[in-house]
Structure formats: structure tokens, C-alpha cells
Amino acid sequence: MALLAALRIVLIALHTLFWAVPVVLLSLVQPYSRLITAIIRWWAVGNLWVCGVKVRATGQDRLDPRRVYLFMSNHQSQFDILALTAALKGFPIRWVAKQELRKVPVLGLCMRLTQQVLVDRQSRTQAVAVIRQVKKLLDAGISVIFFPEGTRSRDGRLLPFKPGGFAVAVEAGVPVVPVTIHGSRAVLPSGEWKVRSGTIEVLFGEPIQLATHLPKKMAREELLRQVWRIISASYQPEQARAALVAAPLTVPPPSSEPRTPL
Prior knowledge:
This protein is of the alpha/beta class. The protein has one domain (2-246): Glycerol-3-phosphate (1)-acyltransferase, CATH 3.40.1130. 44% of the residues lie in helices and 14% in strands. It contains nine helices and seven strands. The protein has helices at 2-29, 34-50, 79-87, 107-113, 127-139, 164-172, 184-187, 216-234, 238-246; strands at residues 53-58, 70-73, 93-98, 117-119, 143-146, 176-182, 198-204. Helix 2 (34-50) crosses helix 3 and helix 5 (127-139) crosses helix 6 (164-172). The protein starts with a helix and ends in a 16-residue tail after the last helix. Mean pLDDT is 86; it is low at 238-250 and 256-261.
């Protein structure tokens, strides 16, 4: 098992290096090119195939490929990005990720050049810069993926959502799509490196139109509650089901952790 997992890591690294060359060259000329999106998807699909991971997606019929969205997804594994990229065929996308990924050889360079939104989780002063970058992507016809939990869940339970992504959604004024991912934690749990084969399920919810009649703060809070309800209702990890069966559905308040606004 360890040998197979190590082989998969090596193949992922080689596959990433292979696709990095055209991505870097194209990004220097046209960073918002749809061809970049296609290459990123080929990279994601190839890595999933190497690891024996299948993606089963439902709900794409609710989405219009001609529109831009902000996708809000639960976060269980590093394979979430691969699964979402594979599932969103035909959608130019970028994602919001932690700034520490800049330091990863090759991958960090590609993420910077392809205009992924890299967030310093310890900074409370970069919200305006993030909003500007996301709006620039949306104006270029590119949708953006947020993980409002802010980090991967270690025990599989849905964490409280941070308000930053919803503040961006209110400022951007585009529909928000709740996304529920099942199975990615079984493929690669947080804190582990041994990749396992399996199936990741991705469920796209109905796009939510923003409440324009509400003040921005109220609109942000209401949007957060709506998205949390939808995702929590469709995501019940095995270890949490017993506790949820008898308990009423409650929405936790936004995370108050001061160092991680997004």
C-alpha cells in the first residue's frame, strides 16, 4: 500500500511538471485564456486517473455555462480541487487557496501565473485586494471556487463558515452555487499523504440569487446561513450521522477566528 501510494505521488509530480510547461508559457501571454482552463482540467483528470479516483457529479444541469458563478464548497481533502475541476467541464474556473501554496515548486508558480486567488490567512487587511481580484476574474468570464470553512476538516464534520467569501459574493453580485463533496476525505484525509482509490461525489445546488434589498452585512449573513443549510443538509459523514439523526438542524455562527478572514 505504501509503495503504491508513493508511486502515485511520483506520477502526480511528473504529470504536473508535464502540464506546467504549456501553462507557464501561455499564462505569460494570455493569463485568462480558455485554453489554460482546458489544460488545468486535463491536469486534474490525469491526476485523478493516475490515483484510480472517479468523480460522479450531479446538478450541472442547474448551471448555465454562459454565466459566471461563485461556487461555495465544503472542504475535506486536497482532492476537492481536482474533483471540482473535473466536474466543471466547460466552465472557466479559478479557486481561492492559502498563500502557502506559493512555496510549492512548480505548482506555486503555475498558480500565480494562472491568477488563482492566493490568500494570506493571517492578514485582515487584504479583503479589498481579494474582492478586486475576484471581480477581475468574473469580468473575464471566469467563475471562482471558495471553501468557506477556510481549511480542510480533520474529522469529516462540516466546520463553521468564515464570512469572507460571502462578503466577496455580495460585492460581486453574481449567483452563488452551494457545492457538496462526498468521498474525497476517504481518498486523501487531511494530514496524510497516502492516496487511495475511490469515488468522489460532487453535488451542485441551485444557484442562489443575492438579496439586493438587504444591507450588505445582512445580505452576507443571510447568504452564509442559506449556503450552510444546503450543504449541511446534503452532507452527513458517517461518523456524524448518529449525532445528526436526532438533533435539529442548526446553523453555527460564522467563524470568529480573527486571523483568517477568507
